[in-house]
Amino acid sequence: GDSVTQMEGPVTLSEEAFLTINCTYTATGYPSLFWYVQYPGEGLQLLLKATKADDKGSNKGFEATYRKETTSFHLEKGSVQVSDSAVYFCALTPREGSGSRLTFGEGTQLTVNP
Amino acid sequence: DTEVTQTPKHLVMGMTNKKSLKCEQHMGHRAMYWYKQKAKKPPELMFVYSYEKLSINESVPSRFSPECPNSSLLNLHLHALQPEDSALYLCASSQDTGLGDQYFGPGTRLLVL
């Protein structure tokens, strides 16, 4: 079945540091890929997505590129802020849009210190 | 408006109580979902409603009873819960089960004593 593997956390960075959170997936066909963010005490927010190979999703300074050859969707940000402290989940669905079944990674806790 | 609302925000209940969680969306979405999330874990799918009909039940114990009274509302009725059912319960909606992105509510944090 489909699966998502994220780099283990927690990740602790200083403000303005570069962020990479690795995500690789196993799926048949051409899944859609997502990053969700969960701030403390809140629900999940869709951060960005990509629906086909070589697509780049971007939002709020975060980026991720759908790499079919390496089955990866790594999340990056050039300069993190304290307000980026949250849990980040990589996820996939077997088709365009996340309206079908979402498969989540285990999540990566990010803490950004001032 | 991409908002999904959930009430209550927090709930404490005993193992003999009956309570209900409520979820509402006004985006015209026809698919709605209940998830359970334990601390430091990803959400786990519990139920999916499509056009007000239950389409997926992920083998959830019968002490959880979902209800979709109309296309905007989703309830989760709770009865005779166990302490291990304490978790964050998240509602989500999407345009359809095969279309559109899932938008999540803020969740109800449930504590079963």
Report on the structure:
- The complex is a heterodimer of chains A (114) and B (113).
- With 114 residues, chain A is an all-beta fold.
- Helix content of chain A is 0%, strand content 49%.
- Chain A has no helices and twelve strands.
- In chain A, the strands form three sheets. In chain A, strands 2, 5, 6, 10, 11 and 12 form a six-stranded mixed β-sheet that branches.
- In chain A, strand 7 and strand 8 (62-65) form a beta hairpin.
- Chain A is globular.
- In chain A, 40% of the residues are buried.
- In chain B, the strands form two sheets. In chain B, strands 2, 4, 5, 6, 9, 10 and 11 form a seven-stranded mixed β-sheet that branches. In chain B, strands 1-3-8-7 form a four-stranded antiparallel β-sheet, with no helix packed on it.
- Chain B is globular, with a radius of gyration of 13 Å.
- The chains are: A mainly beta (114), B mainly beta (113).
- At the A-B interface, strand 6 and strand 10 of A face strand 9 and strand 10 of B.
Number of beta-strand segments of chain A = 12
Task: Catalogue the unreliable spans of chain B.
Answer: none
What is the helix content of chain A?
under 10%
Q: Biggest interface pair, residues each?
A: A-B, 24 and 25 residues
Distance between the termini of chain B: 36 Å
Coarse structural class of chain A: mainly beta
